[in-house]
Specification:
mainly alpha, 3-stranded antiparallel sheet, 3 strands
């Protein structure tokens, strides 16, 4: 065969790529299993639900994640995880106290928030994490603006959103504009 008539090489992941994938799956399995233990406790019976939950999360991560997360900052991740867990607990407690107390304390409404993050993966993490702030939910995104539903329009939601956006920016090593967004 001449050089012009040789068949095209078929791409096949080499051993390094297979090892890299296996390491990534192992790491994510460890992270998700650890999160399960934190949330459900160390009771072995909880794994009846925990194993399918971890498997479903791994499947969803592999199938639904089109954008690869690159350039994560390890120090940013170390600072973000405790913040994420604390805000989750704080958000759940705040909402429970508002709606289960003797007097329901809600003043629902929408807040328009200009996004300062530019990377799609950073924006996605920010918009999904907004749902963990006390009584908030990302309702819509149009271009560089997010509409956030809140249970308390009187709270300082913009300050909380800015703090979260700064944490996500640090996680991705993305600089943010220093100015406070208008709302």
């Amino acid at each position: 065969m001449s050089e012009d008539t040789q068949p095209a090489a078929v791409p096949f992941p080499g051993i390094r790529e297979c090892l890299r994938r296996a390491l990534a799956v192992s790491l994510w399995t460890t992270v998700l299993a650890s999160l399960w233990v934190i949330l459900a406790g160390a009771d072995p019976a909880s794994w009846v639900i925990g194993i399918p939950a971890v498997a479903a999360a791994l499947w969803a991560k592999s199938r639904l994640s089109d954008a690869r997360i690159q350039g994560l900052s390890a120090p940013g991740l170390i600072r973000f995880v405790p913040y994420f867990l604390w805000e989750s607990v704080k958000g759940g407690t705040d909402v429970a106290l508002r709606v289960l107390g003797p007097r329901v304390r809600v003043d629902p409404g929408y807040v328009d928030y200009p996004l300062r993050l530019h990377r799609p993966s950073a924006r996605l993490l920010f918009l999904n994490t907004v749902n963990l702030l006390p009584g908030t939910l990302t309702a819509d995104v149009q271009g560089d603006r997010a509409t956030i539903h809140t249970l308390d329009r009187g709270g300082d939601l913009v300050r909380s959103l800015m703090a979260l956006e700064e944490r996500v920016a640090a996680l991705f090593g993305e600089p943010l504009a220093a100015s406070r967004p208008a709302h």
